[in-house]
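Extended Data, record Flavoprotein
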Amino acid sequence: MISNLAQGVQAFTSNVYLVDGERTVLVDPGANFDVVERLESRVDDLDAVILTHTHPDHVGNLEAVKSAFDVDAWGYDPSIDGVDHAIADEETIQLGDHEYVALHTPGHKDDHLCFYSADAGVLFAGDLVFQNGSFGRTDLEEGDRETLIESIDRLLERISPDLDEMHTGHGPSVASQPYDHVELSARMARQA
């Protein structure tokens, strides 16, 4: 079960995904709202916090969540404050009831990861790609358009055209032909 705890929040935040199951994890704790209260109303315990990347809108609530649930955070670069454990490129991790492969996908930020489960048919895309062909900003520090395009191409090579769901860092999740949205993002990133 995947739910977005940032649904309806008016503050500037990323989406915050609670993945319930055998291993209950939070994908990106978000920022600028009380995510702990929303978590406590749904779960008694968290097994891990998983980070797509460490931009402030994705990790502003990290310390509050770690403190409230006595939980560690996992991300690509453990030298960054708040990241307790490294997730390597191509490493397999469990989110909920499914195994996901972590894909290092820089271009928006150097430590960016996407998480893909072929079995579940689910992609956590972070800020790499969004619905309707949108893609991550490359005008921030560590942003690079060519690297972003390479990362989107790599993602397209890994995910199945039969992908069921894409959960993005901002905006609505995509449950109708999400692969087509990723393909469109690859084209749009080349044109912009």
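Summary. The chain has one domain: 2-191.
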